[in-house]
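Comment thread on ticket #2218

A.B. wrote:
> Attaching the input chain for the structure job we discussed in standup.
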Amino acid sequence: MNNVLAYTHRSFKETNYKSGPFLPPQPPKDEGTELRAELDQLNQAVFDYQLAHQETAQLLETAQSKLREISEERSFWEQLAAETEQAKVALEKRLTEQQVIASGRPKISVTQFIKAANAAAASVQLDEVDAPQNYRPTIKTSWLGI
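C.D. wrote:
> Ran it. Output below, let me know if you need it in another format.
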């Protein structure tokens, strides 16, 4: 950029123009109260901006953290829903298979079931004499002090 400016200056003004190195402007030797007040005001504006930027950065970090947490939780629940759906499909398949197997078996009526249960109950003999010794009820009298 500096070369373009020097070329333009040489082309239209001075043919022997030589630009030296760039020298930044020097601050004035006598700072007035007005200039000092403006400088203080600008410094305060920079400080306020940096403070607001820091607060915004903290809010952004908090929001990103919550977003990551919500994303992980969402992923967990989606995975759980997929696993539950797979289990449901497997259970429906098993139920269908059991229904097919059950449809091939002869149906027993409720009255036939009751008659069979009563016949089985009549053949059961309950006698304490025949029971093994360790299954006989024993009375604990230690709590009575006997």
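A.B. wrote:
> Thanks. Noting for the ticket: Residues 34-121 form one domain.
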